[in-house]
Design a protein that fits this description.
This protein has about 750 residues and is an alpha+beta fold. It contains 25 helices and 21 strands.
Amino acid sequence: MRNQPHSQWQVIDAAAERREDAWSLDKQVELRTWLLGGLAVVVVAVIAVRLGDLKINHPPDYLANAHPVTIKTEPIPAVDGRIYSSDGQLLAYDHQHFNVAVHYRWLEEPPHPLWLKEQARKQQRKRAEDDQLSLDEAKELALKSRDALWRRLRKTGNLTAEEFETRRAEIQERVERIAEAVDRRQQERLAAEEQDHQQRFELSSLRSWSQLWELVKSELTEPPARDRDPIVIKEELDFHTLIEDVPTAVVAEIEAHPTDFPGVRVSPSTTRIYPRGSLASHVIGLRSSVREDQIRERKAELPDIDPLAYSAGDRQGRFGVERSYNSTLRGLPGAQEVRIGRQGDILDVKPIRTGRSGNHLILSLHSQLQSLAESLLDEVVSPEPSLIPPLPKGDEKPEDMEPQGGCILVMNVFSGEIVAAASAPRPDLVQLAEGSADYWKQMNDDKRGPLLSRITQVLLAPGSTYKPVAAIALCESEGIPRTLFNCRGFLDTPKSHRCAIFQSAGVGHGEIGLIEALSSSCNVYFFDAARRLGPAKLESWSHRLGFGRPTGIDLPFEQSGHVPTPKDNGPDGKYEWYAGDTLGLAIGQSYLTVTPLQMLAMTAAVANGGDLIVPRVVSRIAVGEPEADGVSEDIVPAVKARNLNIDPETLDVIRAGLEQTVSGANGTGHRTVHTSRVSIAGKTGSAQTGLNRPPHAWFAGYAPADQPRYAFVVMIEYGGGGGETAGPLARKMVEGLLDLGLLDSGNAPLAAGE
């Protein structure tokens, strides 16, 4: 530089001086000015080009920040499949309807300041330049526009001003409650963070260079504490249902005049309807909404893709076939991308996925036979619990004690199709679907357990209906008994292991064989047989005949029951085993517990020649409308039956004993079950319950006796004697089969699977 200081004694090279003069910008002021000006022009030009590019090619990206747009992916509800009975009665279906939803900002009172300001600006933009409104005037006009919308909504929904205000206030109260909870959690989090920061970096606690370094780094890199950002929750930027199930004319009105209904949208929805109320409620089941926590759990299990596309608010089956066939019934919802403006205006709707309806189920249940079974149960089962709490041991049985529950099952002995499955008490699906808190509490407070299915979930001792199992074990182990047995009325002593006839009349059955022991329900005969057989063979045949494990029916939550064995008395055993337990097992007592469905499968195996079949309640799956011509239907194949390899002569003897139970003059079911219209075979049972409570009443049988087609089981909890209580219901059910044409009174042979 020319003003650089130089020593006066410095010898300056003349050539170097000339070179400096030639290239020094300090001496060429004009050139230097042009260079700096050119550099400034280049910088300004680059900025201008970039601004032009942003203005021309990228305005949406930046306008989006100036005017935020919410992009939501919304499901389009699909219709779930229907459920029909075998005789064509509609048991469950989806009712499609439309709801009117309004953006929260259009319902908020007082209005949000930013929303009101934006609406005022819109009003100003509508006016001509020479007729501009002041901001206050525009706000007043915006509020009048909102009031006009409210009047249209009241007229649309046929609501009074009070009804509209109640619904609007409920929505606002709910959203404000959510916002307060979020705000409270944020305050707690910030307070905890601040406290933690102070504890970490108190000067008095700095004891090392690393802690000092952490303090310096925190002060330099972390933003200073400031006031909390205002809370805006998603519910404040969303639409809320205000009017449900509006007519299609209302939908057309709103969609045809969108400018008259700002911040309003019509959304399709479905409601699950159960038109028959409590009919077969345990079999049909219930569909109800999925909670958000369940959706999160499902996404954790299926991180890639959910094949059923569940979202919060969708329905899934809770019990019955609604649950076991949930994936079949569920319609796949569609999806659409919705762009919503800051003030609730829908800017764009773009479809993403096309939905499809669910498939339909045709049950094997016959609605008229099912109705008959339920009406029969309702005649004998107490409408209110009367055994709660249980009677203390030694107390007398009250005279007005009534049965607490019951079950009636009817099944095709070849196909396994259940044509009637009644359980009492039972819930009303209409009230369950409505989600009434009072009704739900009523169901849960009822100690009889109306929500539990007596078909598959309630475990009871079967009593004498279990004697065919002991008879099969006896015949298959020792051969058909050829000699008669002398029943004295008791086994060893008159004080224990007695027959019912001895307890009532003081006599025994005398000389009897196996057929008579079954028909007259001789306990002593089977006590003696069990003593010879031992528990192992009784246990083995019990398991082979399906006890102690689920039958495999297409209903959820089926219980296994329990077949007691001496192993239960081991170190980890649940029960204490005595020699008398072997005798009790032979007559369906001891610690034995079964479901009525297991008894039905065993009875059907005796009737059909020794095949243990898997019961089922769904016979067909249909795509489209089942009543339409050319509808695609898939028959649900029956699970292959398991042949028990029982000697045919054994089955002949057992069936003879069961037939004589009803047809024989001394049979325990003759007086109450026998009918001249058709031959019936079966076994009565009275399972002792203890605590001076009445026994459980059972009857298990099949009809016709000589050409079996249907097996049936009747169980009444605390019903008393099986012949007296369960027997009449069994006879009426068989007569119902005849009256409905499901059974041929002529006993014509029927092919397996009909």
